Amino acid sequence: MNAKTKTDAGTPDIRWLLAGAAGGLIVAAVGILRQTDAGTELPEEVLASVNGRYIEREQFDRALARLGANAESTDDAARVLERLVDDELLVQRGLELGMPQSDLSVRTAIINSLVASVTAEADAASPSDEELERYLADNAGRFSYVAELAVSAWQSDDEAVAQAFVTALRTDGNVDPSDAIEAVPGLPDGMTPIEGLRDYLGPGITAAAADMPIGSSAVFARRGRWLVVQVLDKKMAAMTELEPIRNRVLLDYRRSLAESTLRAYLDDLRRRADVVVVAP
To answer: β-strand 225-238 against 182-183: which pairing, if any?
Structure first.
């Protein structure tokens, strides 16, 4: 006889139950469920009490939406509420066992949930153009780009030759070309605007070279040939106009605001806590 693939209609699926256990632990850890004395009459917006902890209608409604249940179905509503009660029982047992302190995955989930809660307002911030322009001016270094590059470049039809050349270049610092590899013809000497280098190296290799550290070298494939590029120097420039990089500035503004909000929150926690640290 084949094993059953579904649970009985009236029995909660244990996999569904366990899937929400970590989420329930987070809820309990941050104090979303309020406490009350067992046996008291439940307030209007409370649907259940588990060992004195409330399961409120707002939490129930969120669970309905999250699980895609039919809010008009009495059976669905009963199953979701039963799930929340089961979750709360597991949460309370997990707390009794000290899981938030001992289980790394639970600790990580709690930390991530609390950080998201603390920084939610910063993540949704909508600063004015004036605020973004001021932020751009005050943090120009974050929005700098490579405007000019000084490079040397060689080309070969043989990848092995190019790889041997770049290896020697990195070891000796100066290698003489041979019949199998030659300097890229017409490549300008000294600092050259990025736009100008694209004509000789192509846009992809030029962009990659702009990200390379000064003094480094690498091999690139281009149009059936192999190019060895060595970065000699680079010149940075900063964006001063907001409009071309508005989204980038906005994201950085929110990230910075979230970091400062979280730092202030942690500083406040430290002030209110008894923290003793021994140097490692």
So the answer is: unpaired
* 100/26 Cα distance (integer angstroms): 9
Q: Are 119 and 258 within 8 A, CB to CB?
A: yes
CA 135, 137, 142, 147: dihedral to nearest 10 degrees? 150
- At a CB cut-off of 8 Å and minimum separation 6, what does 135 contact? 127, 249, 252, 253, 256
Helix axes 104-123, 21-29, angle to 10 degrees: 60
Joined together, the tokens standing for residue 225 give 């040939």
Is residue 277 left, alpha or beta, with left meaning phi > 0 and alpha meaning psi from -120 to 50? beta
Q: With both helix axes pointing from N to C terminus, report the angle between 104-123 and 246-272 in degrees, rounded to the nearest 10.
A: 120
- Name the pLDDT band for 25 (thresholds 50, 70, 90): very low
- pLDDT higher than threshold 70 for residue 96: yes
Q: d(Cα 127, Cα 240) in Å, to the nearest integer?
A: 18
**Strands 225-238 and 46-50, bridge-based pairing:** unpaired
**Residue 93 CB neighbours (<10 A):** 11
From start to end of the chain, where are the E strands? Answer: 46-50, 53-56, 144-156, 182-183, 192-193, 217-222, 225-238
DSSP 170-189: HHHS----BTTBEEPTTPPP
- Please answer whether residues 250 and 127 qualify as being in contact, where contact means their C-beta atoms are separated by less than 8 angstroms: yes
- In the Cβ-directed half-sphere of 58, how many Cα atoms lie within 13 Å? 5
Rounded Cα gap, residues 233 and 12, in angstroms: 66
The pLDDT of residue 29 is 41
pTM of the complete model beyond 0.70: no
